[in-house]
Description:
Elements: H1 3-14, H2 25-35, H3 48-92
Amino acid sequence: MDKESTTKHTLNYFVPEDNETNDSAVHKQTGEQIKEPVNTEDNKPFSREEIAFVIKRERFILKRLLGRMHHLKKVLCTLTVETSEHIFFKHKGESVK
Length: 97
């Protein structure tokens, strides 16, 4: 078996396509279970404070990620320019900085 066939077989085994024609007993049972409302203490609606906290935390995380992405962009641009210069000057037979 080649790599592509092995990969397809593995994916199909562990993550089968979810459709009604090949619905297994497990899929049917899971489908029925998710239709039933969960009535537990853990399933209470979120409070305004909880929602506000999560939004604030996500904004903080997003700002940090955007800052790091901006830094990464600078680094990648610098490396690209330096690599291009190195290749260009090496090709021309000149010394690199």
